[in-house]
Design a protein that fits this description.
With 123 residues, this protein is mainly α. The chain has 5 helices and no strands.
């Protein structure tokens, strides 16, 4: 029960944060920004805090907060819509940039988190 509460609270906060990013950046760009920054924060949290956080709170942050914040399904739908609208270059750029920058952000966040933790070796 405690796990579900932390996940639910984290998900609510993450969803509101995602909406703020969506409003700050228009449409597809907002989705990409949420996914890339979420990948970075997830990498950082795992690198810096995974050994220190209560596992239940960790679920609240990773599954709840970051699960609510990142927008994989919206990103997929945006990409499909661009493709269906005949915007093949935009769809390809949306997928390619998000995957490459998302991977880079997750790796950078993990490396930074491990450096902050200093007790574990970097990637």
């Amino acid at each position: 029960m405690r796990e579900l509460l932390w996940i639910a609270v984290g998900g609510a906060v993450g969803s509101v944060a995602r909406y703020g990013v969506f409003k700050a950046f228009s449409g597809t760009v907002g989705t990409m920004v949420a996914n890339i920054t979420g990948a970075f924060v997830l990498g950082f949290v795992v690198g810096a805090f995974s050994q220190k956080l209560d596992p239940v709170i960790g679920l609240g942050v990773t599954v709840g907060l970051l699960g609510g914040y990142t927008t994989f399904s919206t990103w997929m739908f945006d990409s499909v819509q661009l493709w269906r609208d005949g915007q093949f270059a935009a769809a390809s750029i949306n997928v390619g940039v998000a995957v490459l920058l998302g991977l880079a952000a997750a790796g950078a966040g993990l490396a930074l988190g491990l450096a902050v933790d200093k007790g574990r070796s970097a990637v």
